[in-house]
């Protein structure tokens, strides 16, 4: 029996078709989104197990948003749906997540004394750094895009 990869045939359909391509996982954006998803999930679990369970909604929403954008970028939905300005949406998500994680991490570390709250706070500070790196890099891409758009001269916009 021949190996299908050696022949060049496509892999059989199944769960492996849901995995993102390797080149996306090796990209900077893929690694940042994966780190954001993992950290948000860990923080969510820590808040569930802690006395600071009222903070669990923010990591859950950030986990779901990061997971959605991970699969949207991996499946190239950003190229198919041009109506959404993906870099701006990603930038706003990262800025708000960094601010929210920083605020709830300070509250969890200073107000609650249980170990799970302290762990959630420490992971929250790490998530703040990851989201800050992501919004810095996304901001640079956004500025490059806006500079590109402003150099185009508007032609044919005159009304008769």
Automatic annotation (TrEMBL):
Annotated ranges, domain MARVEL: 24-143
Compartments where found: Membrane
Gene Ontology CC annotations of this record: membrane
Topology in membrane: Multi-pass membrane protein
Keyword Transmembrane helix applies: yes
Keywords assigned by UniProt, alphabetized: Membrane, Transmembrane, Transmembrane helix
Membrane-crossing residue ranges in chain numbering: 32-50, 56-74, 86-108, 120-139
The keyword Transmembrane helix is assigned to this record: yes
Highest taxon of source: Eukaryota
Residues in coiled coil: none
Designated name of the protein: CKLF3 protein
Organism: Poecile atricapillus (Black-capped chickadee)
Gene: Cmtm3
